[in-house]
Amino acid sequence: MTSLNTTYLGLKLKNPIIVSSSGLTNTVEKIQKQVDAGAGAIVLKSLFEEQINHDINREIKAGEGFDYPEAMDYIAGYTQNNSVGEYLQLITDAKNKFDIPIIASINCFSSNQWISFAKQIEEAGADAIELNIHVVNSDKNVEASVIEGLYYSVAENINKVLNIPFSMKIGDNFANIVGVVNKLYALGAKGVVLFNRFYQPDIDINALKLTSASVFSTPDDIRRSLRWVAIVSDKIEQIDISASTGNHDGEAVIKQLLAGASTVQVCSAIYQKGAGVISDMLNELSYWMEEKKFESIDSFQGLMSYRKIKDPAMYERAQFMRYFSNLE
């Protein structure tokens, strides 16, 4: 009998599939669908400091005519407390209803809010926190080390106040991903999510305006994460990796686990195919394990990681010419 049990951030999961932070996880009713389909854990939709500030400004603008700073302060405080309060209630409700790990998510840009939100989230009962960070450096005078330092500062400060584990959801745009992950681990992160799928702009050449590119990943996007899951899992064995982006079927789940991931996050596939895709993935994983005679996730996790394969340099190759130099 095969077992799909695994662990992530010290939490016990009945299987390695986690539903990513998204609109799929912003209400108990939506979460219920993912749980019924077999999800091993849920990452709640992010608490966005940016969105809270937007709501505050909207409320203040709607109340034009206020000439008293005290009135605007009251509106700002009320709106923030209400937004955060709704999020904390979602955590409490989800924990009371479901018996799988509930991971909260925070997206901030000011250091004081990271600390404030994290402490409240822990008190609300979340099993762990995923810190969603992205900084676009458009200043030619700001060194890359300064941007990396922001990530380190968040990890260090959050680690001082939390008793529950936290992971860092990062992008693939670092010059030294292994070095960044290693430093985050040293500063207290128990896991990393590889990788964040950021907003990408596009241009409408007819309307001459900026638009958003597709928000969904494609199966081919797994290439972004697979290489680094394999390398990081081998270079920094102590940290858990949740593989994200491009996971659209059971084969993708198997590949990420073979590369060394502890869990696999799914989002776009659910939006496009419905929650039933989770069940399909789990069935495909179970069937493959039975066929290969693997009794547990541990028995094959990392089997195709950087160090385990005969030619680790395969994960380092960057140019197609190395493969096709002999072809006419």
TrEMBL record:
Keywords (A to Z) from UniProt: Flavoprotein, FMN, Oxidoreductase, Pyrimidine biosynthesis
GO BP term (any one): thymine catabolic process
Please give the Gene3D superfamilies that the UniProt record associates with this protein: Aldolase class I (3.20.20.70)
The answer to keyword Flavoprotein applying to this record is yes
Q: In which pathway does it act?
A: Pyrimidine metabolism; UMP biosynthesis via de novo pathway
Q: Give start and end of each Dihydroorotate dehydrogenase catalytic domain.
A: 4-287
Name the enzyme group at the top EC level: oxidoreductase
Return the EC number.
1.3.1.1
Q: Which GO terms describe its molecular function?
A: dihydroorotate dehydrogenase activity; dihydropyrimidine dehydrogenase (NAD+) activity; NADP binding; uracil binding
Q: Which InterPro entries match?
A: Aldolase_TIM, Dihydroorotate_DH_1_2, Dihydroorotate_DH_cat
Q: GO CC annotations? A: cytoplasm
Cofactor(s) annotated in UniProt: FMN
Coiled-coil positions are none
Catalytic reaction equation(s): 5,6-dihydrouracil + NAD(+) = uracil + NADH + H(+); 5,6-dihydrothymine + NAD(+) = thymine + NADH + H(+)
What is its quaternary makeup?
Heterotetramer of 2 PreA and 2 PreT subunits.
Q: What is the protein's known function?
A: Involved in pyrimidine base degradation. Catalyzes physiologically the reduction of uracil to 5,6-dihydrouracil (DHU) by using NADH as a specific cosubstrate. It also catalyzes the reverse reaction and the reduction of thymine to 5,6-dihydrothymine (DHT).
What's the protein called, per UniProt?
A: dihydrouracil dehydrogenase (NAD(+))
- What taxonomic ancestry is recorded? Bacteria, Pseudomonadati, Bacteroidota, Bacteroidia, Marinilabiliales
